[in-house]
Write a structure and sequence with these properties.
Layout: H1 2-19, E1 25-28, H2 31-42, H3 47-57, E2 60-68, E3 71-78, E4 83-89, E5 95-101, H4 117-127, E6 130-139, E7 147-155, E8 160-166, H5 174-179, H6 185-196, H7 203-213
Antiparallel strand pairs: 1-8, 2-3, 2-6, 3-4, 4-5, 6-7, 7-8
Length: 214
């Protein structure tokens, strides 16, 4: 999970430093995507199910979950005050191990995130249809920065998408949804103009036409 976390953290820091947006987005290509697609297809247990099972074994708050090598690795900040790593078989849902973890001393507290891991995964999948393969609670740009959920989605388009989700609002930016490739370039341009003026589906243009006819 830390391998994924480092990659997404670098992306998040770069994008948020440049624009200060509530969410960031990128697409990966290459062999890694094909491997991720195969893992996503093989996993019979969703990230939400893995989170529920982990919390059943270790009560607390999930601060991260990741699909890796046919297993779900779930990080739980337990009600006992300790951090725990719970590992589940992604095909059967069987818990294969639970152990205490030293955790990351710079990681944000679960109390800083009103949006749960399951809600963050739902928001990411709504923005980019596919299979959510990871969510991780982190600071957007180092300790002290806003708290976000970093998410990975194996998209229905066959590509791996990386997003950040606001940990307080679950907001994924409009830019992120457009970058998913779900819309054509022409549609993206129109929507971009509509968003800038606060309009939806060209309603602002319709208003302009009415004004001209008068």
């Amino acid at each position: 999970m830390k391998r994924r976390k480092r990659a997404i953290a670098a992306l998040t820091a770069a994008l948020l430093a440049g624009g200060g947006t509530a969410a960031a987005f990128a697409v990966q290509d290459g062999d890694g995507d094909r491997g991720g697609a195969a893992q996503a297809r093989a996993a019979k247990i969703t990230i939400s199910q893995a989170i529920d099972s982990a919390l059943g074994a270790v009560p607390g708050t999930v601060t991260g979950a990741c699909l890796d090598d046919g297993e779900w690795e779930v990080e739980v900040h337990g009600t006992d005050g300790d951090r725990h790593d719970v590992t589940l078989d992604a095909a059967t849902g069987r818990i294969t191990s639970t152990e205490r973890s030293d955790g990351d001393g710079h990681a944000p507290s679960a109390q800083d995130a009103p949006v749960t891991a399951a809600r963050a995964a739902e928001a990411a999948e709504s923005a980019v249809p596919g299979t959510v393969t990871a969510v991780e609670l982190d600071h957007a740009d180092g300790p002290g920065a806003p708290v976000v959920w970093e998410a990975e989605v194996q998209g229905l388009d066959g590509r791996e998408h990386e997003l950040t989700v606001d940990a307080k609002t679950a907001k994924v930016s409009t830019e992120a949804r457009k970058a998913s490739g779900a819309e054509s370039d022409e549609d993206t341009g129109r929507d971009g103009e509509a968003d800038e003026h606060g309009d939806v589906d060209g309603q602002g243009d319709a208003g302009d036409h009415d004004g001209d006819s008068d």
